[in-house]
Amino acid sequence: MGVGITTLFIYIALIIVLNVYLKRSMGESMLWTCLVMLAIGAAWGGKNAVDMFTDAFAYSAKQEVIYAGLAFVFMAYVLDQTGVIGRLVNILNSLIGWLPGGSGYVATIGSALFGMISGVASASAASIGSVTIPWMQESGWSPERSASIVAGNGGLGNVFPPSSVMLLVLGIDVVSAEVSSDGLYVALMSVAGVVLLVRLFIVFVFAKQEGLKAVPRDKIMPLGKALKENGSSLIIFLGIAIPLMFTMFGTGEFIAARLAGTKGAFKSISMIFWIPILITFFAIIEGWKYLPHNFSGWWKLCRSSIGRFSDLGAMLFCAFLSSRLLTILGMSQEFTSLFKSLNDGGASSTIIILAIVAIITMMVGPFNATGTTSAMGAVCYMAMRSIGLSPLASCVAFINLVSNQSCIPPNSAPIYIACGIANVDEPFKIFKDLVIYYAIPEIIIVLLIMFKVLPVYGG
Predict the structure, then answer these.
(1) Band of the pLDDT at 148, cuts 50, 70, 90?
(2) Which of its termini does the chain have fewer beta carbons within 10 Å around, N or C?
(3) To which H or E segment does residue 51 belong?
């Protein structure tokens, strides 16, 4: 086992020891672990610690998810101060308040729909969570469970076509030679329906465990009255609609064409960055009368929000820092070599299947779905084809496996974004739920596909 893979195991074990047993904060635990990784690289990896740190620091500092995550935390604070979520909940309850835990179902379905558009788990968790997490908490969900539902479903959009991961897989030479986009679209959709049903059942189980009840009929406003008294709160959805219009659909194509002459201009319109800024802006407009109207009041409001940023910023930054360090230490190359040796050595199909599941599950934590696909997509596809799995089934199994990116701790950015919005100080509290209720069921579905128990349409 190489230095990169060994460091991954040490990284995960050390975080658990520091956070669970020594009771250090997650941000501090990840920071200490990154320092240990630098020491390992210098002592056994043949690397220069200063060069490693400089490279990883520069890489992490460029990740917009870090800054967007902090913006979402401030957005959640403003939404709380203005009371806009309470007014929005009155409208939403008039629509779905009769269903126990209804907000959890909406969050799950919304994650699938938004993920199909954005293709980014962090954007999905942040955008859906900004509305549904406060709603869930107002409806009786605990902060931990509301964060678990949003983070766990962050990668759900990857299994619903057309996702960015699907397009990336189709771009692999060995895949494009055997698989058509139309065929993969239908095949993915046939399994995505199963995944969504499982996720909705998980919400049902959570609602039972939380003891949630339907909102009493006498406390549910008629829809007309709810809209009349609270309709102004709907303005915050413009914060999501405007970035979508600027980057997607016909309007996005028009804007892209207009900005074509300025290099990089269209790419700079980032949904995950602009959504929290615009939602905050519209929340301030809608709830202006509930906010300070002088400088000292705003200074006090901003200062009181600072405590929510410190640990989240450290966690997000260290998550990217550690991912880059693992790349520098050659983890992905070591996994590729391991696959090749298994394939060339004539290992049984069962061993190859279990190796694919184990390795991709370990990789998709530190990396995201697109990064894992770029590094391991071709190798995994060829390994699955070598054991007799059909082209479509191989693609569907792989895409579903990397969709676990949002629920494999401790490096998943959606976990910390959801916890930041839900005001969960210790993200470790939701790790168990994410693994048991989200990661493991998805892995079981993948195994059923690989062992040809769960059929894939066309495959």
Answers:
(1) very high
(2) N
(3) helix 49-61
Tokens describing residue 56:
């990883």
Dihedral angle sign, alpha carbons of residues 317, 318, 323, 328: positive
Provide φ and ψ at 277, rounded to 5°.
-65, -45
Residue with structure tokens 């509930």? 290
The helix/strand count (H/E) of the chain reads as: 24, 0
Q: For residue 453, what pLDDT band results from cuts at 50, 70 and 90? A: very high
The pLDDT assigned to 25 comes to 77
H/E stretch holding 167 reads helix 164-170
Q: Choose among 281, 224, 321, 293: nearest CA to 78.
A: 281
Average pLDDT, the chain: 82
Q: Is 419 contained in some domain? A: no
Tokens describing residue 66: 């870090």
Determine, yes or no, domain membership for 236.
yes
Q: How many residues does the chain have?
A: 459
In terms of DSSP H, where are the helices of 265-330? 271-286, 295-305, 310-328
**Is the CB of residue 285 less than 8 Å from the CB of residue 234?**
no
What distance in Å separates the CA atoms of residue 400 and residue 108, rounded to the nearest whole number?
A: 16
Whether 450 contacts 350, CB under 8 Å: no
Q: 204 pLDDT band (50/70/90 cuts)? A: very high
Separation CA 368–CA 390 (nearest Å): 25
Q: SS3 for 141?
A: coil
pLDDT in tens, 336-369: 777 777 767 667 888 889 988 988 888 777 666 7
Which one, of 124, 139, 82, lies nearest residue 280 by Cα?
82
226 in a structural domain: yes
pLDDT (tens digit, 9 = 90+) per residue, 157-181?
788 876 767 777 887 777 877 888 7
Residues 46-89 pLDDT 10s: 889 999 999 999 988 887 777 777 787 788 778 778 878 778 77
- Distance CA(246)–CA(257), nearest Å, equals 11
Q: Is residue 107 situated within a structural domain?
A: yes
Domain count, the chain: 1
The Cα angle at residue 394 between residues 113 and 118, in degrees rounded to 5: 20
Burial (0-12, 13-18, 19+ Cβ within 10 Å), 348: exposed
Nearest to 148 by CA among 433, 440, 439: 433
